[in-house]
Structure formats: structure tokens, C-alpha cells
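Its record is set out here:
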Amino acid sequence: MKYITSTLAGLLASAALVSAAAAADCEVTLRSSDTHPDGYPTVEGVKAMAEEVKTKTEGRICIEVFPSSQLGEEKDTIEQTQFGVIDMVRASFGSFNDIVPVTQLLSLPYLFRSEDHLHNVMDGPIGEEIGKSFEERDLVALAYYDGGARSFYNSQKPIASIEDLKGMKFRVMQNDVFVDMMAALGANATPMPYGEVYSAIQTGVIDGAENNYPSYDSSGHAEVAKYYTLDQHLMVPELVAISKASWDKLTPEDQAILREAARNSATVQRQLWADQEKASEEKVVAAGAEIIKDIDKTPFIEAMVPVYDKYVTTPEAKDLVERIQATE
């Protein structure tokens, strides 16, 4: 065991030396943080961006990716990026809610009809407009990644209509919008830590929860809640941002290279995410999960009127929501 430990330490030290040596060859090294593990679609997306930037700048600019929360959790690394301690960060829009208020609107239930609709919104004028809001908080938005779509799953029965949800108990994140969403659907929200969901479903404390395919798969929840309803009630974008302090040190030409590479990396990340979703779906189905896809979302969407009335209160917010909904 001592040999294994010392060997591992030696390998890590060697890797650090190689990384330091590689960074020394670059005129500019940008440190980028991600909470997800190495190999995860968001991490691989930023790596693709790094490769393109290094190639197009002939090695002058390097992006060093730190996965697995090595530099801290999302909210901490966002703050560090704002102050220029870290150069770049990849984080969910949800983690920006207290910093950039407009991001809260992107967490409204059923705001996006599909992942294609989400991409069309974020890659167009609306996404560009939202991106400018980050500059007021010392961040420059570079690219929008895909965080998947959250759907309901439970241990009791197939849910094919809004009536099927009545009275059921679902775990949700500690978020007022989520709690109000469940009430509007006639179900009961039960906020609890993610790590307690498996046993809570298994023991009947709750009937189910909600998340995307990969999380439904990797958490083992498919073992105790075999009915998965593809209602896609929530799609929250992911953002790759750079510190304005680091951005301002770059030439306009290098800024253009970073922007293009970031946007190209979004295509890579989204494809990797789609592949992961497909693999997870196939895995849970093979294990006995039942996927309910043929549902009419209209009643679900119509039930959200009181939720939107509560959270979309300003003329600016109402205009943005209407423009998002009108995007093809």
C-alpha cells in the first residue's frame, strides 16, 4: 500500500511538473475551473476550446482546465473569476442567480420547448443580450453549453398526464420556483439533499424526484423509481465565462480567437451531452425502466400561469419571456 501511495504521489508530481513546463511555453496561461470530473461533457468542451485556441495562436495562449472542483465549488469559483483570481469558469446559470438577476428567468418551468429551442435562443440575439449582463459583474460570457433537461421519475406509476401527478410527493432542490411549480401541478414538493433521494424513494418517504437521464442513471435512482416521464420541465443553460480582468489583457485579435473557439466548443459539448443522454437512456431501459414519452405538455405549461405571474413581474422580464417563447 505504501508503494502504491508513493508511486501515485510520484505520478501526480510528475504530471504537475509536465503541466508547469507546458504552461511555461505559453505567453499566456488561462486557468479554467469546472466542478465536474475529467471526461464529463463540459470539461471536454473547454478542452476542445483550449486545443483550438492553442493551435490558432501557435501556442501563445494556453487554457489549463481544472476539473472535479479542484479550484472550488461553482459559486466560489465564479467569485474568484470575477476578481481575476481564476481566469475562466464553467458553471450552471443557476449558480449565477444571485449575481446576474436575468439568469433567474432561465430557470422558469417549461420556458424552453426542447433542447433545440434552447440552443436557438441562446445562440441568437437573446443569448447575446443576456451575455452582456455578465459584463456588469466583471465577467465576459463566451459560450453556452447544454445542461440537459430535467424530467419526473417515480416508483408508483406511469405519469402521462397532469392528473397523474395529483397528490404525489417529489423531491426538488431547495428553490422557491421548484416548490411553486410542484404546487401548480397539484403535487407535493419535498426539498431534501440529493444524497438522501435513493433511500427516501426506497422507503416510500417520497414517490419520486426529477432530473436528467445521466443523473437518473448514475445515481441509481432508476433502480427504485422505474417510471420516467419525459416532460422536460426544466432546461438550464451552462455558461463558459472569462474574467473581465483577464479578457482586457488580450488583444482584440486574441479575443476574437477565444470567442470563436468557445462557440465551436459548444457544438462539441452539446454532441457529447447528447451521446451521454442516449447512452444513459439505453442503460436504464435495459435495466427495466419505463420511459413515458407520448404526453401532451400543454396542460403542464398552462398550469404554470400562477408561477410566471409570481416571478415575471417587470415589463422587461415579461418582454424577455415573450421573446424567448416566440423564438422558433
Remarks:
- The longest strand covers residues 227-235.
- The domain at 2-99+137-146+237-279 is CATH 3.40.190.170 (D-Maltodextrin-Binding Protein; domain 2).
